[in-house]
Design goal:
The complex is a heterodimer of chains A (78) and B (203). Helices cover 29% and strands 28% of the residues of chain A. Chain A has 78 residues and is an alpha+beta fold. In chain A, strands 2-3-1-4 form a 4-stranded antiparallel β-sheet, covered by helices on one side. The N and C termini of chain A lie close together (11 Å). Chain B has 2 domains: 72 residues, TusA-like domain (Translation Initiation Factor IF3); 107 residues, Hypothetical Protein Ychn, Chain: A. In chain B, the strands form 2 sheets. A 5-stranded parallel β-sheet of chain B has the order 8-7-6-5-9. A 4-stranded mixed β-sheet of chain B has the order 1-2-4-3. Chain B has 203 residues and is α/β, with parallel strands linked by helices. In chain B, helix 1 runs parallel beside helix 2. Chain B is elongated, with a radius of gyration of 18 Å. The chains are: A alpha+beta (78), B alpha/beta (203). At the A-B interface, loops of A face helix 5 of B.
Chain lengths: 78, 203
């Protein structure tokens, strides 16, 4: 099993927004990856953006710059 | 056509089957017989009774602990001296079916959709039903409103088969509010279900 680390997890209300987030972040060199939304979180969409905790401001800035609406921001050990 | 309701809620096997047999024997002509039961094994046993008599049968889960089996009897059942009643414990094996598209196979999607409809119908006729059917990606279209497989899927659900559809996929296709059978699941449950299966069938 992978070691669990503290991560930033951003959820979305639609699958389309989560996929747009991946496109935008990959195109702009923002760290993180799309993961299935962890089960401890209830979200409308089953995909979430996970990034190192310290990348929070860069990730949220990216969402704002890309006009991607996110639902909630969590810090989890996953 | 007359509809006869048999209330077998709260009764353990063989009573739901026995009460249904008595209702079938008491018919005076063609009738629809609805047996209400409170557990999946009873659904399976009453379904098997109807199949044995050659009556078209379907079943549905109305709520937790309430199932209805509906059979179309074209004539009264003959009174048998002693009708053997089998209390088969459970008809489900530890097989998981993963449905990843609304079409079966590649080539023609129009043909593939017909094949998938036939696959699900035939699945519902298996002697040993699967434990779980997973629907993801285009498969999500089969558990939602307008799907022509709903009757077969509801019948399997009433017999205890878990019908689970990927929530991410429903959301992607705009079908979240249209789920018509079973429950919504996520990637963690999908992976666990596949990992624990004895056998996986992927049409």
């Amino acid at each position: 099993m992978r070691a669990k680390l503290p991560r930033l997890v951003v959820t979305f209300s639609t699958t389309a927004a989560a996929m747009e987030m991946e496109r935008y972040c990959q195109a702009n060199g923002i760290s993180g990856r799309l993961i299935p939304t962890p089960r401890e979180i209830t979200a409308d969409c089953g995909l979430a953006w996970s990034a190192p905790s310290e990348a929070e401001s860069a990730v949220l800035q990216a969402a704002n710059n890309g006009c991607i609406e996110y639902a909630a921001v969590y810090h989890l050990v996953i | 056509m007359e509809t006869i309701k048999v209330d077998a809620l709260g009764l353990a096997c063989p009573l739901p089957v026995v009460k249904t047999i008595k209702a079938l024997e008491a018919l005076t002509g063609p009738a629809t017989v609805e047996t209400h039961v409170d557990n999946e094994t009873a659904v399976q046993n009453v379904t098997r009774l109807a199949e044995g008599k050659g009556f078209p049968v379907r079943s549905e889960k109305l709520s937790d602990g309430h199932f209805v089996i509906t059979m179309e009897a074209d004539k009264p059942a003959e009174k048998a001296e002693e009708t053997p009643v089998a209390c088969t414990p459970d008809r489900r094996g530890n097989t998981v079916v993963a449905i990843t598209s609304d079409a079966m196979g590649h080539g023609s999607d129009e043909l593939g959709r017909q094949l998938m409809k036939g696959f699900i119908y035939a699945l519902s006729q298996l002697e040993e039903l699967p434990k779980t059917i997973l629907f993801y990606n285009g498969g999500a279209k089969l558990t939602t409103e307008g799907s022509l497989s709903l009757e077969d899927l509801k019948s399997m659900e009433a017999q205890g088969v878990a019908i689970m559809t990927c929530g991410t996929c429903l959301n992607y296709y705009g079908l979240t509010e249209k789920l018509a059978v079973g429950s919504v699941t996520n990637m963690y449950v999908i992976v666990e279900t596949l990992a624990k299966a004895d056998k996986i069938i992927k049409p």
